[in-house]
Amino acid sequence: MSIQAQNNPMVSALFLPIIILVLFVLRQNLIVILGISTAYAYWAFGDGVISNIVVDAWDAANKDILLSIPLFILAGNIMSRGGMASRLIDLMTSLTAPIPGGLAIATIMSCAAFAAVSGSGTVTLLAIGTLMYPALIKAGYPKNFALGALCAAGTLGIVVPPSIPLILYGIMTQTSIGDLFIAGIGPAILLTSLMLTYAVAQNFSHRESSWNLSYISKSLRKGIWALLMPLIILGGIYSGYFTATESAAVAVVYAFIVESMIHKEMNLDDLRDVIRETTKLLGSLFPVLMIALSLNVFLTYEEVPQNLVAWMSDKIDNPVTALLSINLFLILIGCLIDIGSAILILAPMLMPIATSHGIDPTHFGIIMVMNLEIGYLTPPLGLNLIVAMGVFKEKFWTICKATIPFLIIMLMGLMTVSFVPEIALFMVD
């Protein structure tokens, strides 16, 4: 071990987050941030042989579970290219038409349903928002409500399984992906229910029409295949028929069969284009993931997280205080960096601190993702705010103002899940 680390390993460990923070302030690319941070870690704590990064990265990345990331992304892209979004909207609209605020309810439920098959908050916002925003405005719903509902409900894709952030957390912390998927169901239902309650309260005077059994039946026939997708994935994992990685492969095959043979809205040329788009995305994601995994292995080997836990345990001895402090920290981080970057860098460091205060690793994974989910709606770098600004042609601060009620709702959901772990864990065991 280097002289610096031997003299004061805690000081050397604390320099690492400072370096990361400075690089973020300088707005460097994530791969630059992780590369410099990893090189510093090998220099400060190891034997100075930076080339060992490659060896550790290969060892860390030699896991079957990594295959689930490109497969779930590919499945989501196939569904986005096809007609699942419009079919889900038709189904939800037919079911909620006579309910007060029916179209608002249909919007949120469509986002929740599509999030469960796409696994992405941004994709959900784009797929549902482009169709539902004009419909809400035409039906007389307030513009601020329409903007806020679509931006907020679009983030449900982050916590609804299958969720790429949950997969990343599971990989970085060695937590069961299947358990994380199951644990995400309760919080997702809670957040969706809170948003639906607010939608009804705000739009109680809006009633579109009565139920039309013929329209419901027709919409159900068209949308049933999309609704079956999350049931097949979660049912297979929960029943033990296949692992999370195998479920991702099932999702790809199922999505392509539905879109090409049942909906008949995708051919081999479309599939080739979707695969090309997915490959480009993975080309930027996987180098970052490999370096992050290498850094994770090294820090664990050098017991940096354990030392950080011991230091924080001396400062914070109350589990409630620890949980509130971590939540506040993650909310602030979510305002500044994207969810993937935050999980890759912070999950291996924060999870041991959480578990040292008696917080279940699976429960903490949900808490972390929900915190960073709020970051999609907070300036200056809220991804859904930026996407909505381009899609809906509205000013950035107009969209920020529209999301405030939904931010309050999401904070209520976060606090509830944080201090009532059974919401996330009641089905896990």
Round the mean pLDDT to the nearest integer and report it.
Answer: 80
Helix content: over 70%
The helix tally amounts to 23
Largest sheet data? none
Query: Secondary-structure element order, as H and E?
Result: HHHHHHHHHHHHHHHHHHHHHHH
Distance between the termini: 41 Å
Instruction: Give the amount of beta strand, in percent.
Output: under 5%
Uncertain segments of ≥5 residues (pLDDT<50)?
1-7
Commentary on this structure:
The protein has 429 residues and is an all-alpha fold. It folds into two domains: 50 residues; 375 residues, no CATH class. The chain is 79% helix and 0% strand. The chain contains 23 helices and no strands. Helix 7 packs parallel to helix 14 and helix 17 packs across helix 19. The longest helix has 34 residues. It starts with a helix and ends with a helix. The N terminus is likely disordered.
SSE arrangement:
Blueprint: H1 3-7, H2 9-25, H3 30-45, H4 52-61, H5 68-81, H6 84-96, H7 102-118, H8 121-138, H9 143-154, H10 156-159, H11 164-173, H12 177-183, H13 185-202, H14 213-239, H15 244-262, H16 268-301, H17 304-315, H18 319-336, H19 339-356, H20 361-374, H21 383-392, H22 396-419, H23 422-425
Name the features.
429 residues, mainly alpha, 79% helix, 0% strand, disordered N terminus
